Amino acid sequence: MCWRIYRVLLTKSGIHAIVPDRRRLDMKLASHALPLPGMAAASLNYSMPVIEPIDSLEEIRNNNQVESRLRSIDWSFSKDDTDYLSHDIHPYPTKFIPQIPANLITALSLPGEIVWDPFGGSGTTAFEALLLGRQAISTDANPLATLISQAKCSTLSPEDLGHLQKLSSRLRALASNRQDAEKILKEAWQQISHLVPEIPNIEKWFHIRTIQELAYLKSQISSLPNETCKVFASVCLSGIIVKVSFQDGETRYASKPRDVDVGETLLSFSNYLSDALKKHEPLQLLLQYRRPIITTLDIREPFRKGRLGPVYSNSVDLVITSPPYANATDNHLYHRFRLFWLGYRPTEFANMEIGSHLRHQRLKRGFDLYAEEMSLALRNIYEALQPGRFAVLIVGDSLFDGKIIHTSEELANISEQIGFEIVTDIERPIHQSKRSFIVGARRARQENILVLRKPPRKIRVVLYPASYKMWDYEVVLRKREIVGLLKTAPEDEGDGRYSLELDPFEVDRIRRLTFTHKAKFNPGSLILTWQAILENGNTLKAKKNRKEPKYVTHGIHPYKGKFYPQLAKSLFNLSGVPTNSWVLDPFCGSGTVLLEAQLNGLHAAGIDMHPLAVLIARAKTSICQENPYEVDFVLKDFLDEIEVDRSSPQHAEWFPPKCHEEIRSWFPPPVVQKLGWLLMEIKKVPILAVQEALLVCLSSIIRNVSQQDPKDLRIRRRNPPITDAPVLELFRQKVLELRARMRQFAESVTAAPYVMKPARVIEGDSRTEEAYAKIAPMNGFDLVVTSPPYATALPYIDTDRLNLLVILGMSSSERSSLERKLTGSREIRARERRQLEEEIPSLTIETVGSQLAIATIQEIWHRNVNAMVKVGFRRRNMGALLLRYFRDMFNSFRAMDKYLARDAQVFIVIGDNKTVAGNTIMRIPTTDILVEQGEAVGWALKERIPITVTKENLRHSKHSITKNTVLWFYKDSSRQAYPHHRG
pTM for the whole thing? Predict the structure, then answer.
């Protein structure tokens, strides 16, 4: 198998990064600064932000406090590597050091917020914003800067890397054979000659062979399969232009002709591309498919209809930028030949380049031109910013006619006239490494960090509901979320819209809403909530008329009895627990609550006795903690490995001998050997979390490739039986879906307002204190959200018997033993039934914690015992089964309570079901009984919230429970708990 070699590097918080190809990267961790899955601070002396992050916008309300925090930093960063990773992927003379935006982003914004650099240059701010979990927008008047930024901030997929590596190898092979190269270039010339730009006196600056080979390179780049590859290759082409020309170095605009060999330019490009790919690899471990918005834009143009390119009025949370020095640089001249060869006109850029020395000379204008154009830029920055938010300009002094002008002072005066507050102006010494054609730009010894703020004011917001039709209870929960999170009662505008006024330092809470998907600021932009992005992607155009419950890894495997993720998130919001709180699900099933907790900035822990449920829960939560870049590579390699069916009869022996007979009974021989082969291939995968996810993908198709009727929950065989099944095709489709969902999530995660935390999932018994002791945090769980099994509602193990048999190698006897132990199981042996029935007449509150439970159990048992007609074994067992179920639930409550924090809250999603007792249909009042049991352990019932859930389209599901209640308890320290309970 062609797996690359990986090294797992553990960090202090347990999050890890996977480093490929034996190459060592020195990893550090600052979980507050690098919030995204699997992200450690790779590498090459990466300089972590030294300032502490803010936890809420309240921390930046006071300008004096902001100034004090910013002045506490040594902004020189003289000992730091300022060209780490790919910040030097392409020559760019006026870029500023990445440590500056990294610290400013950390100090002045929250995860998921929008950071804009209007003078984006080579993408330094955008790159740092992505690493720090923010949405990034970078604009610049220079189209080459746009390309460099796009290349720097791109994650090349395995397919992209393959295309670019093949291009490099192909060109190197061509360059090595001069005779063939000369012939091929000559034959191609007629088709590629139009790609030569109209450069004045082109022969003065380029050899004819260079011209031919550059045109050939352009034709090869244009044939690449996607824009990501074309951009990356185009930046590499730009990177060699000066080297292969007659220009005398990067900083001298003079021609120095020389001889050029055939293939020299092709080889130069091949080497540059190969080196760039190597430089880019550690960066990709950090970028992880997160993408900024990067475009070419003239910042002097006004907003039109509330928009300037990709930037909307009142939408940006932080602006960080380093405007050009006045009268100092000429990027249009520095990049003149590069712009020509990339298809741009340098004169167009020259006419809009703010601060250009040649432009000042040509127009015979002094600093007034710079001030005039920077005023236009500052007005646009003001328009873009949300009220109360900051713009930071890193500027240097200007030199006109031998006089120094203090640029920061001049820009501060202009900013005040526009309406900005001046927060502070910090001087910092700069590295003596900037290059320019202009002497004035080389003499700078210090620059200024000018911090501005758009004055805060109340913001009028209109909240829009999800596009799908909501249940009535969801409409109620939505309004309660709004009131609870935003601390304001909204006005009903009709059609599901609510309006309200918010303090500008509270608007970030909007992104946490569940059933609200959009918010419009008046005047200003329309933003998406995190839930909307999870369900539909980060686009305002997405509109689905159905609720999406399968986002990220929620849909990785079907599982009976689970409740949907939006409800779990809504309950998190209703509880009001802060980010970083601990959530427990003692009946975690397939991990819906756990994954939702992760996606919403909460620590999560779960327990379940069902081995398949634990595998699903662990898979769906752990793969989200892996580096998505490495996960994508591993999944691609795996898909390549199983592209062709290489199974054989010997693979049927992969399974444990104890399972062979039963497997042969339920699966045709060709299916058995395919399943064995796939299980063997999965075990070769080098990342455990991906292994488990692949096992779950395989498990999800088991019923469809077996003799089991896939539409029947009972044990029923197909008629007629199958002789084979498309195992590989179904499985590959599941893996492709997993890869696509992980990629979509990785691309969207910069909008997350939270830092994802690892989840703890164990196979254990929630009735025992030992299970909680393994996963409990030091100060106890802050919140419980769970949907426990209903009383005798679903045969979980029986339903999943084939999955347990094939995936986990559990025999029939092992499954039967486990089934009887589950809370809510229908299975019971005669001896245990008789023992329980002996207890029923004399049941006490100490046993089940509920007088109503005692009365219900006794009445059902007496009715069935005294029935005039003969009752079946299910009805005969009901009294004992209910005693066992309610005793188990009470023991779970008591064990759980000992590991809850002092002010913990508990949400239990439960429903009543029915049974026939004697000749009468009786309701089993599970909801009321659990209320009494909760109160018996010292919990106070705050509220009952009625909800309705849906059922899957399966036969024999007509008795499934659709009317449910959410019981909302809080731990009441003042109440008298059950006597045996530790208070």
Answer: 0.90
